[in-house]
Amino acid sequence: MSDYRIEEDTLGAVKIPANALWGAQTERSRNNFSTGAKMPLEIIKALLQIKKAAAIANKEVSAIDAAKADLIVESIDQLLSLEDTDLRKDFPLVVYQTGSGTQTNMNVNEVVAHVAQRINAKIEILPNDDVNHGQSSNDIFPTAMNITAAMAVDKLEEATKHLINELRQKQAKYWRVVKIGRTHLQDATPLTFGQEVSGWVSMLEHDLDYLQTLNKTLGELAMGGTAVGTGLNAAPGFADKIAEQMSQVYNHEFTAETNKFYGLAAHSGLNVVHGAIKTLASDLLKIANDVRFLASGPRSGYGELNIPANEPGSSIMPGKVNPTQAEAITMAAVRVMGNDVTVNMAASQGNFEMNVYKPVLIYTFLESTDLLTGTMNGFADKMIAGLTVNEKRMAELVDQSLMTVTALSPHIGYHESAEIAQQALREGTTLKVAALKSGKVTEKQFDKWVVPIDMTNIEEK
User: Fold this and answer.
1) Helices (H), 127-267
2) Which of 33, 154, 165, 208 has the fewest Cβ atoms nearer than 10 Å?
């Protein structure tokens, strides 16, 4: 038995592996483009769902034979029931192919057609005329892009909420635990650790709001624009039916009510949403760095926080514990920042009626969401959940700080207060010793005015 079969497309005969479900156009792409990651399965599944909805819509308006439509639906259901490892076998194409995603669209068309023939060889299903009926790669691929991006952002939002909830617990637990503040990496006035954490929480709450607000733009589907946005060869109401079906399948609001010329030529929605993802990455980088620096030590650093010992930190230094979850999320963050440049550039490549950087744009977008979703969950569960405060160390640093002198300023003036702080620094004494030595403050006054918890303006929770 031969290891391959011969199929023909408009360019001629092509040898295809005998057991492969794909056809000639997929095989050409497989041979012509072999570099880089495979097209994400999320895109493949979205294309399958869209084509299923298209078959149903075409059946309803009698654009294709009902038996053919039913067979296409049955074939797609069979494919969607497969495990990812089994599904991947017949979708071998890479991201770095044609900029429209046409070859992946044809890969899906050919596989569906071949599965249909296996189910019922008596009904001929053609990849272009039947599975792709009323569609173009130019509108179906960006539709799949927006759907997969919207679902990925939904997961990212959930991960953000989870981290917020873990941080809120720490905020409440340590609301009145006083520590020294730092600005410009130098000592500043006191605050509580709960207050510090509340700033992190607010950063993430703002990021979540940005994502939720902007995610709506991904609900606009290019479906129905076909080749250049005019809708040529698509039946009336076709796109609306698909959008309705996608809304039900993904439990997300999608609409076909958008300018199709925009939908094919621009990916502004993906671009602006990724900007919000980059902003989230920036904030996560700051938060994770704060945590790992505050936990530095345990004896020769700040030492204010205790982090969970998840794994040995060194192959040579016994007992060492490293802030690995912080390192993971900060690495993910810088990757996302780099990805934003790729997304920006790819979104700018709308040449006349079509953007031709679609595959790399959606691949990069999904990488960013996957990286942040995964590392945020890890950071929340394996670092923040087990984080504790070294209250003794925090109290020591507050006692040693010179910036509590700020509480004296309203009573004896800025200049005199500065002289006290500088004298304490020069002589290596505490602020209280220097203040009493200056003769400008009595011990009773110092104890009344320099109360770290009062300096935080803490509100009861």
Assistant:
1) 137-173, 193-214, 238-250, 260-265
2) 165
Active-site pick, 34, 62, 268, 314: 314
137 is in an annotated binding site: yes
Is residue 321 annotated as involved in ligand binding? yes
Dihedral sign for Cα 60, 66, 68, 74, please. positive
Give 54-93 pLDDT, tens digit per residue: 999 999 999 999 999 999 999 999 999 999 999 999 999 9
| Residue-wise pLDDT tens digits, 24-62 | 999 999 999 999 999 999 999 999 999 999 999 999 999
Query: Under CATH, which number does the domain 13-133 receive?
Result: 1.10.275.10
Q: What is the mean pLDDT of residues 202-209?
A: 98
* Alpha carbon separation from 107 to 25, 75, 128, 165, 186 (Å, rounded): 7, 14, 11, 43, 59
**156-392: what fold?**
Fumarase C; Chain A, domain 2 (1.20.200)
| Inter-residue contact 333 to 281 (CB < 8 Å) | yes
CB 50 within 8 A of CB 242: yes
Closest Cα partner for 66 from 57, 79, 75, 77? 57
DSSP letters, 86-136, are HHHTT---BSSS-TT-HHHHHHHHHHHHHHHHHH-TTS---IIIIITTT--
> Token pair of 409, please?
């300023």
What is residue 61's DSSP assignment? T
d(CA 95, CA 205): 34
Q: Quick check: 308 and 322 in contact, CB under 8 A?
A: no
- 13-133 and 402-456: same fold? no
- Residue 98 is labelled as binding a ligand: no
Q: Is 138 annotated as a binding residue?
A: yes
Catalytic status, residue 409: no
Among 184, 268, 409, 438, the one annotated catalytic: 184
184 is an active site residue: yes
Domain boundaries, given as residue ranges, for the chain: 13-133, 156-392, 402-456
This prediction's pTM: 0.96
What CATH architecture does domain 402-456 belong to?
Orthogonal Bundle (1.10)
